[in-house]
From TrEMBL:
Residues 73-100 form a coiled coil. It comes from Rhododendron griersonianum. Residues 5-94 form the LOB domain. This is LOB domain-containing protein. Transmembrane segments: none annotated. Belongs to the LOB domain-containing protein family. Keywords: Coiled coil. The keyword Ubl conjugation does not apply.
Length: 119
């Protein structure tokens, strides 16, 4: 890009736009809102994390060209659902055991019952 047709990123950042500007293919001069939105939503302190995320997603796509990281997310979600079901079952068993214990404590033992009944 020449200095008269700077890309939207270089215009926004008020700098010269070289012919090999890395931003120009992604932020053309006719769409300044595109860069402004990205710049606003991706502040400087989060850019390293964004780059790491892009790298991770690319690696996942290499390993699984069809689903990429979405496949991993799906597997993890299934595992979470399974564990939640197991927790619900365990909680239900605890309620049943507590109810049985409460019921057993409220009733006299059979020997005590017979002694009380014959009195």
């Amino acid at each position: 890009m020449t200095s008269t047709t700077r890309c939207a990123a270089c215009k926004y950042l008020r700098r010269r736009c070289s012919s090999d500007c890395i931003f120009s293919p992604y932020f053309p001069s006719h769409n300044p809102q595109r860069f402004a939105s990205v710049h606003k939503q991706l502040p400087v302190n989060l850019r390293a994390e964004a780059a790491d995320s892009l790298y991770y997603e690319a690696q996942c796509r290499i390993q699984d060209p069809v689903y990429g990281c979405v496949g991993i997310i799906s597997i993890l979600q299934q595992q979470v659902n399974h564990v939640q079901n197991e927790i619900a079952k365990a909680q239900a068993e605890i309620l049943v055991l507590n109810a049985n214990t409460t019921t057993a404590q409220g009733q006299p033992h059979s020997d005590e019952y017979h002694q009380l009944a014959s009195s």
